[in-house]
Amino acid sequence: MLPSQAAANNKVVAHIRGKQLGGSSAMNFMFWTHPSRRDVDNWGALGNAGWSWDALAPYSRRSEAFLAPSAQQTTDLRLGYVDPSAHGTGGPIANGFPKLHSPFLQAWPRTMEKLGLGVRGDPRDGEALGGYVNLLNIADATRSYAANAYLGPARQRTNLKVVTGAHVTRILLKKSKNGVRATGVSWTQEAGKHEATASKEVVLAAGSVASPQLLEVSGVGGRKLLKQHGVDVLVDNPNVGENLQDHVYVPLGFAVKPGLPTNEDYADATYFQEQLSLYLQNKTGRLSSAGASSALLSLEQIAPTLDSASPSLKSTVPGLADQYRLILRDLKSEAVAQELTIEGGISPQFSSDTTKLFSAGSPGNFLSILGVLEHPLSWGSVHIRSADAAVHPQIDPRYLSNPLDVQLLKAIALHLQTVARTPPLRDLLQGGGSVYQPGYRALTADDVEGWVRAAVQSEYHPCGTCAMLPKSAGGVVDERLRVYGVEGLRVVDASVFPSIPRANIQSLVYAVAERAADFIKQDA
């Protein structure tokens, strides 16, 4: 269930989930971005002993297989900043730069340089800011993701059984002399009920929506909520399902000059079939690659005069005061925004229908520029509405409920217009960036807030709902990802992030999972 968002004009924002092998890594935008050093160090500062950028770095490297750019790619995409030594090369997840370069992709880093925002250093080092061409999870024109990179090589293991078409109904918990222990899981499949017994431990990796839901229907959660839905309370922890954090963005759509390639070209069935045939026959053509522009920018870079001080930042919720303090401390120097392009139109009025969201809905060809808020202060929750795991939980991100998020997105949206009107990107847009996709308009300081509230979207990066924090500070799992109050139960997914990092979260999910694998082996 998705309640309307009061601070965002009461709109409903859909939350898509990866319900296939590989989870959401099978359907994301394939951007291979990384948290900042400060993002991960902050996890340690919040009370998680042993967590820091340096401690996690070996696991980040372990997960990735960096494909160095060619000399031609380096020239075309301004990749002189790349430091191969900052990347891992022996891991399962491939990442490299686009081999097919659109005019927009080549213009992006040059436009950022014109604005004085060119990247200084490799963003993989966790410190560099600026605009650049991003890495993608593509190898041999094929998505590199959890199912083909991790599961594929392990499918022949005799101790591995993959069950598809299943819906987990609960974690089996049993009271013991030491409290509560996880003994297995139950699920339904093709109308049948099944159970599996754990000899050592249960690992919950259902994502930021389903992981807290499964804990709650299994008896781990806030006492009042569980009793309301008739669930026996085994572990009273009201932190379960709280601390939901998500990246949000505002888009602007611009008409491009005639003849430039955008996603609208695929509306021509003949053209689409030609491109599909090229891909299926020899993995060439436009379907073999994707756009990958990115810019990680601090508040100092996009709106140096904006005052981040706000009485709304005071919080009486355990743990939030410390997280707010760290976010505010870093606004001036860390990435407050990620700006990127999509070579096609977006229709923000369809926030509740993702089949229509990523389309223009109007004749013509368009470029969308997105401005993403990297460390929002508006946090929500995920909680059950029933004791039945088949009933969708209530997902309430409370977008824009903190006024500072609105102020930051206003500054970001206005900066997007500056980017669009700067050469060489402006040379690719009709009217030098002054002709908008129908439904969009030029923004001013006086009316930008209305646009932010109407157009804000989720970037589908939910995290934090089973937070790794001291229990007294809002935690659900400890620093080894073990659920408080339950023996033999660990959570390993983005729900354990105590605070949301900059940029796309997929690379950090892999790194945390790699470290969790060591925890599991060490604790066996």
TrEMBL record:
Flavoprotein listed as a keyword: yes
Record's keyword terms, sorted: FAD, Flavoprotein
Reported cofactor(s): FAD
Domain Glucose-methanol-choline oxidoreductase N-terminal positions: 18-41, 207-221
Keyword Flavoprotein tagged: yes
Binding residues for FAD: V168
Transmembrane segments: none
Listed GO MF terms: flavin adenine dinucleotide binding; oxidoreductase activity, acting on CH-OH group of donors
Family statement drawn from the similarity comment of this UniProt entry: Belongs to the GMC oxidoreductase family.
Name of the protein in question: Dehydrogenase citC
Phylogenetic lineage: Eukaryota, Fungi, Dikarya, Ascomycota, Pezizomycotina
